[in-house]
């Protein structure tokens, strides 16, 4: 069982530590502990034990990541609160371990209930802490603060900007510049279209005038030519 846990949990720990993170996965050892507890809950004779264990650990990691990344304001939490939440989750697994094994489906249903309870608790804790930390009074607990997105610990008592869901001034400025450039490009395109339309109309009228003048010129020349031909015919007629 020890080799199985080591083989399974090592890539999961690395993925959680170097990739997307949630509040509970900032400590890689926590993932190993959860995997060990889950492995002890699943009898070795259960078919597909490795796949079942891997799937349940991934579901737990995915849940905490989803909660902390669902809102910009849900990324800060007191380290002591995170520790208490981890302890609560481990106790839930210990309770499951004391129950009689009733099959894979019952086991998955109980784990689903644990994940739902964890999701509700984590959302409430993150929301309450954010409201306190981002308020004008900055009423927060003592001790370091954990940024669940980066796993960095901070000692700031008050937060603002992106931590509180406020728009980054530099980002807002970039958006304004982008909007201005879009409007400018649109104005240039529309202006070019108007000028092209005007040029086409003006050119068309000019070409009509040229064709009209050319037709009149050709008609006059043709009349002159016909008159000359008539005069020449008269000169060559025999006199009676």
Automatic annotation (TrEMBL):
Keywords: Coiled coil, Membrane, Signal, Transmembrane, Transmembrane helix. InterPro entries: IZUMO (IPR029389). Residues 108-135 form a coiled coil. Residues 1-22 form the signal peptide. The chain crosses the membrane at residues 177-202. PANTHER family: IZUMO SPERM-EGG FUSION PROTEIN 3. Belongs to the Izumo family. This is IZUMO family member 3.
């Amino acid at each position: 069982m020890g080799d199985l846990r080591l083989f399974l949990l090592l890539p999961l720990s690395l993925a959680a530590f170097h990739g997307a993170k949630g509040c509970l996965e900032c400590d890689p050892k926590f993932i190993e502990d959860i995997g060990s507890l889950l492995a002890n809950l699943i009898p070795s004779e259960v078919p597909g034990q490795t796949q079942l264990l891997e799937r349940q650990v991934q579901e737990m990691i995915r849940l905490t990541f989803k909660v902390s990344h669902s809102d910009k304001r849900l990324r800060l939490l007191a380290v002591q609160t995170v520790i208490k939440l981890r302890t609560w989750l481990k106790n839930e697994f210990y309770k499951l371990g004391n129950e009689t094994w009733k099959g894979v489906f019952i086991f998955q249903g109980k784990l689903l209930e644990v994940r739902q309870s964890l999701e509700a608790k984590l959302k409430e804790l993150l929301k309450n802490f954010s409201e306190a930390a981002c308020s004008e009074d900055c009423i927060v607990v003592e001790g370091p603060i954990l940024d669940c997105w980066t796993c960095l610990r901070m000692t700031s008592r008050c937060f603002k900007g992106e931590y509180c869901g406020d728009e980054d001034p530099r980002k807002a400025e970039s958006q304004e510049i982008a909007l201005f450039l879009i409007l400018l490009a649109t104005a240039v395109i529309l202006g070019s279209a108007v000028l092209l339309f005007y040029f086409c109309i003006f050119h068309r009228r000019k070409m009509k005038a040229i064709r009209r003048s050319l037709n009149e010129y050709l008609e006059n020349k043709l009349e002159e030519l016909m008159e000359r031909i008539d005069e020449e015919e008269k000169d060559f007629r025999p006199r009676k």
